[in-house]
Amino acid sequence: MTTRKRNMPNFDHLTDKARIIRKHVIQMVSRHGQGYIQQGLGAADLFTYLYFYELNLSPQQVGNPQRDRFILSTAHNTAVFYATLAESGFFETEKLQQYCMDESTLEINASERLNGLVECTCGSLGQGLSVACGLALGFKKANNSARIFVMLGDGELEEGQLWEAVLFAATHNLKNLIMLIDLNYMQVEGDVRSVTKIDPVDKKFEAFGWRTKTVDGHDFEQIFSAFSDLNNSADAPSAIIAHTIPGKGIDFLEGQKSHNMILPDEIAEKALQQLEIEQ
Amino acid sequence: MKKQKGPVISNIDLHLEDFSTKKGNSVLPKPYGEALYAEAKKSKNISVLCADLTAATETDIVRDYLPDQFIMCGIAEANMIGVAAGLARSGLIPFVHSFSVFLTRRCFDQIAMQIAYPNLNVKLIGFMPGIDSLLGVSHQATDDVALMRALPNMTIIEPCDPTEYSSAVTLALNCDGPVYLRLNKNCPSVPTKYALSTVERGKFGLIKSGTDAAIFASGLCVQEAIEAAENLEHDGLSVAVVNASSIKPLDIQMIKEMAARTHCIITAENHSIIGGLGSAISEVLAETGLHVKFKRIGLNDCFAEGGSRDYLFDKYGLGARHIMQAVHALKREHNG
């Protein structure tokens, strides 16, 4: 992996982009009255950082074999994913209105029908990291300098296949593989810790031979610093463990652990007002 | 170092490969492994994956002679399928190996989502299908064809003779999409008086012609079908034997021809009678409205047990004598 020259991100710009993306998330989900709103608001800063700073990936590079790859293993977290793609210019923001509509390629679980922007179809949890491993190994063999980013949820750490992939990545020294764990302690049943003892997450990955960095997933400076350190890392795959808060950005939604939440119009309106005021 | 006592045994190869190795014959031919090696040597894009079963899947040749093209995935089949998908997306052509049962039953969702749905150029190579193992029910793939057949984009090929393995590999390579090869180690040869045609996608091979009944058989059951047909000649019945090596897609033309000619169709497979070759052919017969007498030979909706091939085939009704009984019964119905 070549070390890219890294300019400092414009943190104010990232903050503003994240705010706009959160607005899209509210609008997209409110059209249906329910959906993956908490996850979208929680991961908005991570998506913003990836697409507006870290990834070597732009609309002009779709189809370029050297582009960085992003795999969304938690494929249901699409409101924020599609909003980020639209804001990054991969398609018009008007298209976001088709989210989850019949015939739309913007399905609630991202699929390859969204041609070229979804690297593999996840949704059945625990599979994204395995495909990322295959891509990373294939690129390593071909001396392709592209990096493979994969975003996982913490609930997904309960899947057995995930740990098969964690072993594989370390065995094959996949240093071009960077995993981002959206650690919001939320799964369908509620708090992940009430379902499974997943802590300490960082120690687990370190024991498996990975390099880890734990960050506040809403602090762009911390996120940037973690990625910068890992970019200069040794021969090992990397995990960035980002603590995020479901519903982040809307005070009355923050911290509510709800996998699929009802979002009536009046609540959506209040939420949007709050995002406007912050401007 | 402590001096060893007793006889030195280090020069004797005590390595057992997969419990199908016959006593006193530890060196088995590797028709698949040789064919794969020949193709991999020609094409650097071929990537060979295995889950801790190199000797049993004959991938030890590539492991030893083309190590750059070999990837050991450990005992982690689900991950191996995802890795293969990623490798295919990076431009390589993965050949993925394990026992049929682990490759298909254990990894069904992974194959569906990461290989079949995106129609990736990944080859799944399963060994020891059906009830052909001392290792018992955990190692017996009796539903693998049913599973793989239900997946869109999947091609399923089951050769019946070691000489067909090379063309099966070529077919897999020439097919731009997922292929499941169902292979036996220590596969017996079809008697040399019968000519085998090259394995082709969507084509069956006519091994023996006949007018009174036709047996569509796959894999090890082809041998049983030949033996049955030869014995039935002595009973005055002219019975065709078809090598149904292309289980998906089927050779519809051949099925129609045989149905029209014989009005009496038997299927024989080393697999459950549910969802496999017999089911597939019955669907064709039913939908084309061809009225025939029909019987499926296979594992009769049950799990089996560990045992020798001959013992299990006899106990579970997959042998030549069971096929003969089925033909006689159908002919009685047909004539009565």
Which terms summarize this structure?
heterodimer; A: 279 residues; alpha/beta; Rossmann fold; 5-stranded parallel β-sheet; two-stranded antiparallel sheet; 9 strands; 13% strand; B: 336 residues; 2 domains; 7-stranded mixed β-sheet; 5-stranded mixed β-sheet; 18% strand; globular
Question: What do you see in this structure?
Answer:
The complex is a heterodimer of chains A (279) and B (336). The longest helix of chain A has 20 residues, at 11-30. The model of chain A has no long low-confidence stretch (mean pLDDT 93). The N and C termini of chain A lie far apart (39 Å). In chain A, helix 1 packs antiparallel against helix 2, helix 2 (37-54) packs across helix 8 (220-231) and helix 4 runs parallel beside helix 5 (160-171). Chain A has helices at residues 11-30, 37-54, 78-87, 128-141, 160-171, 192-195, 201-207, 220-231, 265-277; strands at 34-35, 69-72, 148-153, 177-183, 186-187, 190-191, 211-216, 238-243, 261-262. In chain A, the strands form three sheets. Chain A has a five-stranded parallel beta sheet with strand order 2-3-4-8-7, with helices on both faces. In chain A, strands 1-9 form a two-stranded antiparallel sheet. In chain A, strands 5-6 form a two-stranded antiparallel ribbon. Chain A is built from nine helices and nine strands. By secondary structure, chain A is an alpha/beta fold. Chain B is α/β, with parallel strands linked by helices and 336 residues long. Chain B has two domains: 31-183, Rossmann fold; 205-335, Rossmann fold (3-Layer(aba) Sandwich), CATH 3.40.50.920. The longest helix of chain B has 16 residues, at 320-335. The termini of chain B are far apart. The mean pLDDT of chain B is 93. Chain A binds chain B through residues 65, 112, 119-124, 126-139, 141-142, 144, 160-161, 164-165, 167-168, 171-172, and chain B through 47, 68, 71, 73-74, 76, 78-92, 94, 109-110, 113-114, 117-118.
